[in-house]
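Q: Is it fine to ask for two folds in a single conversation?
A: Yes, each is treated on its own. Send the first.
Q: Here.
A: Result:
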Amino acid sequence: MLYKKKWTLKHFGKIKENKVGTQVGISPEISQILKNRDIITEKDAEIFMNPSLDYLRDPFLMKDMQKGVDRIKKAIEKKERIFIYGDYDVDGVSSTSILVLYFKSIGYDVKYYIPNRLKEGYGISIEALEKINEIGCDLLISVDCGITSAKEVEFAKTLGMDVIITDHHECQDEIPDAIAVINPKQEDCTYPYDFLCGCGVAFKLIQALTPPEVFRESMYDYLEIVTLATICDIVPLKDENRIIVKNGLKMMKDGRNIGLKELIKVCGIDTHQLKSSHIGYSVGPRINASGRLGYSYLGVELFTADSSEQAKEIAMDLEEKNSERQLIESKMYSEAEAIIASNQSYEDDKVLVVANEGWQHGIIGIVASKLTEKYYKPTILLTIEEGMATGSARSIKGFSIFDALVECKDLMSKFGGHEQAAGLSMDARNIDELRQRVNEIADYRLTKEDMIENIKVEYELQEGQVDLDLVDQLHLLEPFGMSNPTPRFIMRDLVLANIGFVGAAKQHLKLTLQKDSVYEAIGFNMAYLADEFTRGDKVDVLFQLDENNYNNNRKVQFLLKDIRMAHPKSAIKDSTSIKLFSKIVPHDVNNLYKIDYDLEKKGINDSDFGQNEISNSFNQKYSNYNDINIFEFFDENTLVICNTLNGFFRAYSDLSLIDDEFDIEFGIICKDTHKIKLIFSPNLDKLDLNIYNNIILYDFLYNKEEYSYLLYNIKANSNLVKYYDEKSKLYLNSIMDNIVPTRDEFISVYKYCITNKHIEITLNKIKAVFGVMPLKIFVILSVFREFNLLEYTINEIDNILIIDFTKQSISKFNLDESLILINIKELKERYLESY
């Protein structure tokens, strides 16, 4: 049983009140989320909850800021010709816009240049510098680009231009020899926060150019645009970024910038409900769309518009461009998927490198992101034109695509970016070698576990905590983004009461989940998951808390992010359950239960067992199952024992939430770092119990002799933890009731096997084929194998039971002589005696 995604809890156990929460006046639930973000002091919590603009840092702490300011002021004094050179994405357009607005505010005319994404590509280019020179330029100020443009800066000098670079991207070996290079990512820059977006760096430049008393008022002219760029560039929403975005979102509710206000209207967003997600998923893509189609200047025109009429017209134009972009994107995504599906070698690649002729330059980044999200693999997508390949790269956590490209830089004519995203261009003949080399790098740096998406979860919500009040409190933590993600929670053992679909193409999954209360959940674009579940299954769900306000009826809604099986409704139709049944039955006579302990010699009476099964003898902190925080016992050298499907699924679910990865051998989980073993229905006499610090029982043991054996074979001071309740006995009762086949069942299976000789049956069809419960089938087959009548195996990958009958004619054999059957009957008898 393998989960497709890993869930990792940030906090284990129940939520408790803490001092910081009380001091700041927030609930324990919100306080725990702050603690999960390493916000543990009253002051830090206060700054996080109420990030004031007074906390903005001194811009002159940034390397070369004073040089840049001095040169700009000199240019203004001498009335020199100034060009702003931006990038074509939201960050670059926003950066360009706020500098244009700044110069407009001081009455100084400047020009700007944004390269055409389709024709010129990313960054400063020789061709662009020549065009700018023809118009006339004395000082070029780059925004959101330029840190890798050493050659271009040298060329600009030959044209008589001075260059100031403002950027936030990763630096390469050679820093351009410009008048000033303002980028907090430089190694020798001591600015205390280096995660500003490009627009954030431009904002700091404006702050440095403006007298403090003036900036306290004028910064509101730029704050909304900087907020947009900060959200869309996916930089950590901490420190100055959080200050900017928290205050900028408040401003957007009234809309100081005419252009942004009109664009928000076009998106159909209620400004009083405006969140960072609206900016990231609705507003930003419309600015990006114009750049992707070669009209980046529209964004600057929008944000610097002087009238509502002009802004409205541009906003509608951007809306049209976005619709066009969506059509192109859909087509390109389908083509990329077809290429991947047609070449089986992509399955083994850890990095997808996909190229095609005629793809739209500007859309490649979006499609690369979608492929990375779907396959959870770094992706490089390239379009080929006239022998040149140009494209975008996107990555997953733990793999710097920028560093990988640095190691392959001899294959490329140009590249730039950061850990998670990059752009590149190269000779198309080098594509195959790039694919080979970047995968060799990934093979070395990415483990099997790295290729499984790890979703961080705040904590496990209990039913009493889920209400609209908590939904409202979560808004206090906004804005959400990188380093302050939207909180995600889990709930477990929910009954899947109903499965439905919504959306024009029925692409969205709608679930009704039930425990003591009933919950609605919606999973956008997750309809494909429905095939894995059926009504009545118990499921674990991972979700964001939201509200459904249909017809003014407010109620809690789960925004589903992942779902997995907790316990199937029908064990006989579940492959994992059937494989577990096969583990209960002894494989051969060498695997029989042999514990036969004389309890009285050890001073233990039968009265110590019964309903309490020696729980007073356990070395544990808690007497009540519900009071145990089981995660406290998942330590080095821990043995977890389960005897029922319910116990196994519970244990597997708990272990899967621990941050460390583990290898899986069916029925046994061996944790590399902590050496945790999960064993299903073990023969205790075959285990070296003395090596474990903790032994955790998720189920009742089969009989009192097994408890006795445990107590006298574990090492001193080890914890023996009972993690089950009286209801758990029902699951063990069910196994005991179905473990001994009748004689008629033996005969029925024998006749089927001798008739068909070689049999291959999908596990979930065993009951339908034989008319016998799967547990009994494995007992019957094991007994027949004991008499050398047949051999059987389970194909674990394809979930197929394979039976080969070895006798050509009916041989006489006596079931009463089967050691396996005798052993199973004795096991049942001891169980009944013990309970």
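Q: Second one now.
A: Result:
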Amino acid sequence: MSKSLLMATVALALVGGTAHAQQRLQPGAPAYGDLRQGDEQLDSGEFVDTWTFQGRAGDRVSLSMSSGDFDPYLLINGPGDFSDENDDGQDGDTSAALDLRLPADGTYRVMATSYEPGESGRYTLAFQSGQAGRMGTGVGGSIADRIGASARRGQNNVLQPGATVREALERSDSRLSTGEYADGWRFRARRGQTYTLTLQSGDFDAYLVARGPGGLSEDNDDDPGSRGSTDSAITFTAPADGEVQVSATTFEAGETGAYSLTLEEGGQVYAEERGSNGRYGRAPQPDRSQSAPSGAPIRVGETRDGRLGQGARTLSSGEYVNTFTLRGRRGQELDLRLSSGEFDPYLQIEGPGGFSAFNDDDADAQDSRDSRLIVTLPADGTYEIAATSYEAGESGRYRLSVGDGSSYRPQPQPNAPRGQGPGTGGSLRIGDTVGGALQAGDDTLDSGEYVDTFTFQGRRGQRVAAELTSSAFDAYIMLTTPSGNQIENDDGDDGTNSRLDTALAEDGEYTVAVTSYEAGETGSYRFSVMPSQGSPRQASVPGGPRVYAIMVGVSEYGDAQSDLPYTDDDALKLAETLRREGVLNPASVTLTNAQATVASVESAFRRVAQQAGPDDMFMFFFSGHGSQTEGEVSQVSAIEPDGRSEGIVLSDGEISDREMARLFGTLRTRLSLLVLDSCFSGGFARNVVDRPGVMGLFSSEEDLTSAVADKFEAGGYLAHFLRSGLSGEADGDGDTMVTAGELATYLRREFTTEVAGVEAETSEGQRNYQNLVIDRGGVQVDDVVIRLADNGRMGAGSH
């Protein structure tokens, strides 16, 4: 049976809520659900729970659904009409499984359902995700799956240096959890010896994994020394004596065929290329000759002389590089120095747990181009030191030394303004990065933590990211505004480093206290204040005409309903506001009065929805009469607890809450906004705001009427305040982004001030007051509704 994804995503028959619908999946964490009566259903009768996750283009995703109560079925859809589905993961297994690579950035919806209509029971949903290539430990699934998953040979297959084995991956072999066949091999490694593993096949895209003593963890898809090849190669220097386990497998699930696997002693450890954040990635095609051996061991107290230039390996950005390996201990302090009189040196060290530190110029040596790093190692293991240059193509002799950093004390800089020497703080400009150290003799907080203080000048609306990183202590930042308000942060995204991303609330001098979480902690740090585009989710939201809108206003109803003042103007004025702000896409449609028929509105909705993509915001706006019906039209349910259905009244008919939900189900946008300024409009909330990325704004509760905003010459209060909010009034922090939280706060504040005491009534004549209804659903408070053009809102130099 093949279920239609169009049916699953567009034609969901909403007959009840489920505790697990629209929950977010987390990689590596199993999710548990229960299909039962009251859940949403597909048109064909199967119960369904919907889960979501954020994906990036090229990510490899593995999904599996298992149940002892029913036959599971998985469906997925995402940006750009992407869709896939699965009934049975493997032959004879009723579990459902999907292994796929994501085509685009955006939100993906996973629908957990059953093979047959009406089946119910508990299920488990497993989710693994990783960057292009393999997931988790580097290949996907657990290490136990990947190392030692040999079907015919187990781990008794020993590789000998200088020898090549020829075998085949076959359908009788064991399979990894993500579907790839794999053979396991092993060999004994000696500490300090360099080894090269090469996996070649003309039948499949080869993939290699190696795990071993001393934290050895290597995997590879394509041989970096053979551009365009699908063969796989790994070269590494063994950090310790012991047995190395090797998995020979494939890049894609289900591939089979013959292969050869070769183990050699010696070889080139591939350099890594420096990215924009100072980290390194794989260099594409290094030279095999080099004056200083790459990956050569170095110890504390040793000094090495070397040369960068022709014959050395190069980074993809053009710099020559030599690398050295060092065995380090947790808590060990190092003083790394790279000096040269012939080029501008650049140092980096990387190690276990994603540890990375880098430096261009020694902060203690005024006017020197030499590079110096003072680091405290976070764990036992092997560290790689890269000696390279600041500019591409620079060459010449250098000296690298590795010293004991425990006695390091930063030297004062006599010309630094207000104590800007390392470890003492000073004044910065937005965009600056400085190095320093917390140490005995520094100022202390009342609670005993050492502290360095920095200041910078800021303007209201500038968004900045203050970041403090240290491998020596648990970083802590405290930001004080010109008026004395304080914002603080303990841990950033990576645990012990601190990152504070905020929009500045006022003009003036800001003070940042760089300190530690625990009293008495000391060590070196790196501190920066940089322009920011907000959180990664905010930064990815583009500006410009990204609002795709259907704006409908009906004032003239003829004999069907009483006419309403200004409601047609509400739609026209909203379109003009969005156009003036530069955010309205030309594909948007405005319909008023006789133009606003049921057929024309639905046609415009479909046409605009087809053009709006995963980077866009869709808005449906209506100002006019609303309706409420009961009896045979609707039944009491979780969606309609009062047994009544709501609708918006157009020039020739109505669109119900259920029909609006069907239309919104066709959207594939970053965020969708339903705005209804009409009587009983709050009744649309449960029908439409039932999926990720949908937010609803309604002028009244579902059983109450809405009033005309005569004093603002507007058809409704919501329409009036929405226009002013989206023109910048709702941008509370002035960073040119109107977020969902800011818009909700602004509208509630204006309703409290201006609409308090406005009377409303139910269809039975019970009297009350008009109250705004806002339902953000799964939309987070910092999700961007629109990104406004600057237009002078922010000061010079703001971002």
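Q: Anything structural to flag on that second result?
A: Two points. Residues 328 and 381 are 6 Å apart (CA to CA). The longest strand covers residues 121-130.
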